[in-house]
Amino acid sequence: MIRRKNADWQLSNELVTPKRAFLNRRQIMQGMAVAGVTSLAGCGQGEALARQAPTDGQLSARSTGYAVADDLTPYEAVTGYNNFYEFGLGKGDPARYASAMTTSPWSIEVSGLTDIPRNYALEELVDFDALEERIYRLRCVEAWSMVIPWIGVPLGPIIDRLAPSGDARYVQFETYLNRSEMRGVRFPVLDWPYVEGLRLDEARNDLAFLAVGLYGEVLPNQNGAPIRLVVPWKYGYKSIKSISKIRFTAEQPDTSWNLSAPNEYGFYSNVNPNRAHPRWSQETERVIGGGLLERRQTDMFNGYEDQVAALYDGMDLIENH
Ligand SMILES: Nc1nc2c(c(=O)[nH]1)N[C@H]1C(S)=C(S)[C@@H](COP(=O)(O)O)O[C@H]1N2
Ligand SMILES: [Mo]
What we know:
disordered N terminus, Sulfite Oxidase, Chain A, domain 2, alpha+beta, 8-stranded mixed beta sheet, globular, binds ligand MTE, 5-stranded mixed beta sheet, 8 helices
């Protein structure tokens, strides 16, 4: 891993989330019973249960063709400079406080316009023996970015398994909410729980990814453990963390940032250097983990124009920001 010294994101070691132990199989099974999860043998739903989700340690993943030419952002910056407002507004707050979040056992409630609404254990949705590594840049609307080696699974095949019905056009994701574990939700900064959404064709694009790890390890809580979205052609806030609900809808779903300031944060939120945020430019971005003044040009769709531009054919991307 590439480590560089001293920048404004540098954090002391005590801020690093303590390592947690693997849960034994018995605890997992008990937890699933509590969460009301059932395995549907014979329906092809239970097969991924062979391998329980690790809560700590290394993950093996096959590397893919998805890469970014620039240096990786140092691990300390990726895990020490975060936005996760449920734990506070400061960039160091998630690393300090997110260890309070219970991430195992984990289930995701799937509802709305689907033929099979039910709760899924994390292990049913993610096959931990078939993980991929993808290096994507995460570009925040605040005009900074990081290059992160994510580990996870593509979203499209999971959407297909969740069987949205014919009239479903959008998918909404919701973050876990626990008032005693999340000190930031005492403040009405956003309309909790944090929600985000995609059009279904966006969600099925090959780039859309559900991450369960980074840098070869299980996701640290501050980065959205145990499962978070990564939509690399959109601003960072679309990449919702710690997903506990998925809902299929016919109408465009609410998103927390769009509700809070529609003029600043649109539903699409595609990275677009030509459309300034009302209070600052989006033409360049600060390279987190680089020198204090290191900036780069922001690319249309964060560099993924070839893969995603067709999703927006005929749309005015300034109007539909
Ligand atoms: N639930 C939740 N998800 C969230 C956020 C948040 O505050 N709450 N912040 C978003 C923003 S603004 C960014 S830039 C990315 C940051 O991801 P990272 O901390 O892994 O770099 O997470 C996004 N996902
Ligand atoms: Mo962000």
